[in-house]
Amino acid sequence: MKKRFVKPRLEYEPESIEAMRARLPLAFEKVNRAVDVLAGKALAPSGERTNVFDFPNGLRLILSRDEVDGRNFIHLSASYRWASAFSSKEMFVASIRHAMDGLGLSLPLTELPHDVSPQGGIPHWMWHEDTHQSIHDVFGWRTWAERQNRRS
Known about the structure:
- 29% of the residues lie in helices and 20% in strands.
- By secondary structure, the chain is of the alpha+beta class.
- The chain has one domain.
- A hairpin with a 4-residue loop joins strand 2 and strand 3.
- The mean pLDDT is 81.
């Protein structure tokens, strides 16, 4: 029987920006194979405390280094502990940018995908680790399903 990783739910543990900035390099040490995580063959970065950054205002960033089709990307996802934290996408993105600035991350954060709102959904961004191009610009596909369709 194949081992299937169950995604643990990590407790919300806010830290100071200084503490998070100090441990940020640990989030990028390990390279996660995206196909293994999606197939349940490897633990998702969201289940590893080294990849989870909880801010006092309720923001949770998950940062990792992921391999997709032989290329490494910096992966960011963002969520809020309280579903009604923001009334607009612009406020949500501004809070994420502010947190990234505090961590010393200067990556081109685009606006939220149209199907994600501050009240629901978890946005994801991925940038090539060397060029900082978005994964969409590197491969020309917008969603994981589109990637799968092009490969078959």
